[in-house]
Specification:
single chain; 572 residues; alpha+beta; four-stranded mixed sheet; 24 helices; 19 strands; 43% helix; 15% strand
């Protein structure tokens, strides 16, 4: 019996949330949360309708496609080659499947590639449903792989029988691995499979005495190793270095303590071994010295010449032998010597000739690697300037031009500047004696305030060019001319001569000018000087070039020839 008022209407209110997130949607669908994300990738699960998730209507629509979602995920499930082989194909086929077999099986059409993650992903469904034809194809793939592995194993054993790894190959030659790699980079030998070297090729290298001597000679030794090679004490090695008999090939850095770094010299083994042939040194006596006794080297070092003296002696002998001037210059930054020399009448000696003489010199030949023969910029300049400073050989000529007048209105923008000669000076290139100095009277009146520059000096006369030109020809005849301004000086002389209707005569010959019009001036900052002062600066620069660098060695006076200017060369 039902009491009135107790009857109620059915509850139509939906208790499910109006918006669900990924976890809630997965619970409603009965799937894992990752399947929701995967469904989004496959296009089955739509994008979120709100920032919080999916609306109730969207969730219900997805629920109607849950079986489609499961099927799509199962069909697109994939694994990498290694896991697919171990976890699926081995249990399914009962064969010894490896990761290398999976791509081949896929190429044969029995496995699909369903994705990519650090490599292809292969279909798990296809692997589990592998047909009998697929199993036969897999067995053939495995058989071919095993045959190929067996063949490669035989080839590897055969290669190992006739080759050595890099460490053993270097030990067979008595080299280090780095030395062997250096020779390989030179193309003398080639590494084969897995960096191994053929024994036959190694024996060819071992038979090359020049190569082996070069490799061992280039080997770098520390001071203690060098002393050990000579079988002498460390204190004796310090005396050898102090005498200048050997110089480091390079230096490195070594840490001493926690914060201090020191330079460590390294010596070429070839240079260390060459010390055994050092004349006048009894190495056996040095080795026989007992601890605490004075080394025989101490007295010998004080008597034998050092490297600097040996190089200077060779330079002096070279000057006497070929009757040329020689300069020996030491570069403090590089620690090397440079030899430069003039040439004789036949253009010798060449660098090859000097190198051959250096090789056979018993004292200087030991320092050959630290001596550069010719090729320096200062040496080329000295050879150019040396003949110019011989007595009577050349003059220095400098001119000054008159300031350009203000252009007329109808000439503005014409871009033409006439080289009007205002002053000229000539000095002897050897002695610096003033041969000619005069202001030049302009051929046409200059603007007010643009007088000739020589007017500033009351002792300089002003003459017309028609009177100065004969004098200039006289002081420059049979001499080379070194201009202060290679282009401007010649242009001013030509312009002034053209105005007077005279001829330059030998001054027009390019061969009498020591510098071409395109050459750089010896001194670039003479514009504010008068012509005589500019000549003095150029004369000084010319002699600096002729003096070169380092110590000058002139031929012995007893052997000098009778040619002009030789005595001046001897004085340096």
């Amino acid at each position: 019996m039902t009491t009135a008022g107790t009857d109620s209407a059915p509850d139509t209110t939906d208790a499910r949330p109006a918006v669900v997130n990924r976890g809630q949607l997965a619970v409603e669908l009965g799937v894992e949360p990752w399947m929701i994300t995967r469904g989004q990738d496959l296009g089955i699960v739509p994008a979120r309708t709100t920032s919080r998730g999916w609306s109730r209507e969207a969730a219900d629509a997805i629920a109607s496609r849950v079986e489609e979602l499961r099927e799509a995920i199962a069909d697109r499930e994939g694994l990498g080659a290694f896991r697919l082989a171990q976890e699926v194909l081995v249990p399914v086929s009962g064969l010894a499947v490896t990761a290398a077999d999976v791509p081949v099986l896929s190429e044969l059409g029995h496995l699909r590639v369903v994705g990519e993650y650090h490599g292809p992903l292969y279909s798990v469904r296809d692997a589990r449903a592998l047909t009998s034809a697929g199993c036969q194809a897999l067995a053939a793939v495995i058989e071919e792989r095993l045959a190929d592995e067996a063949r490669r194993e035989e080839e590897w054993k055969a290669w190992c029988a006739v080759s050595l790894p890099a460490a053993e190959a270097a030990a067979r030659l008595g080299w280090t691995e780095a030395e062997l790699e250096k020779v390989a980079r030179e193309g003398r030998i080639t590494a084969g499979l897995k960096g191994r070297y053929r024994v036959e090729d190694l024996d060819v290298l071992a038979a090359d005495e020049d190569l082996c001597e070069r490799v061992t000679g280039d080997r770098l030794l520390r001071s203690d190793e060098a002393a050990g090679l000579l079988e002498i004490r460390a204190s004796d090695w310090k005396l050898v270095v102090a005498a200048g008999w050997i110089t480091p090939k390079t230096t490195g850095q070594a840490r001493v303590g926690r914060r201090r770094w020191i330079d460590v010299p390294y010596y070429a083994q070839r240079d260390v071994e060459a010390l055994r042939e050092l004349p006048g040194v009894d190495w056996e006596a040095v080795r026989d010295v007992r601890p605490g006794q004075v080394s025989p080297l101490r007295e010998l070092v004080s008597r034998l010449p050092g490297r600097a003296e040996v190089v200077q002696q060779f330079a002096a002998a070279l000057a006497d032998r070929h009757q040329v001037d020689v300069w020996a210059h030491f570069d403090d930054r590089e620690g090397t010597w440079t030899l430069e020399w003039t040439r004789d009448e036949r253009g010798g000696p060449s660098a090859e000739d000097v190198d051959a003489q250096l090789r056979v010199d018993p004292a200087a030949g030991r320092y050959r690697d630290g001596i550069t023969l010719g090729g320096s910029r200062w040496g080329a300049r000295a050879r150019w300037a040396r003949p110019l400073v011989e007595p009577g050989a050349a003059v220095v000529l400098c001119t000054k031009r008159a300031p350009a007048p203000e252009p007329a209105e109808d000439e503005a923008g014409a871009g033409h500047e006439e080289q009007t000669l205002a002053e000229i000076a000539v000095v002897d290139a050897a002695t610096g004696a003033l041969l000619l100095h005069s202001a030049v009277r302009p051929p046409t009146p200059l603007a007010h305030g643009h007088e000739a520059s020589g007017a500033k000096d009351a002792h300089v006369q002003t003459r017309g060019w028609e009177k100065l030109l004969p004098r200039l020809r006289a002081v420059t005849r049979n001499r080379l001319i070194t201009p202060g301004d290679p282009a401007g000086d010649r242009a001013r002389l030509a312009s002034a001569t053209a105005h007077t209707g005279q001829r330059l005569m030998h001054l027009a010959d390019p061969a009498v000018w020591a510098l071409d019009e395109t050459d750089t001036p010896l001194v670039s900052s003479t514009a504010a000087l008068c012509a005589s002062e500019a000549c003095a600066y150029v004369h000084e620069a010319l002699h600096r070039r002729a003096s070169a660098l380092g110590r000058h060695h002139a031929p012995s006076p007893a052997r000098l020839g009778t040619g002009p200017g030789r005595a001046a060369n001897a004085d340096g």
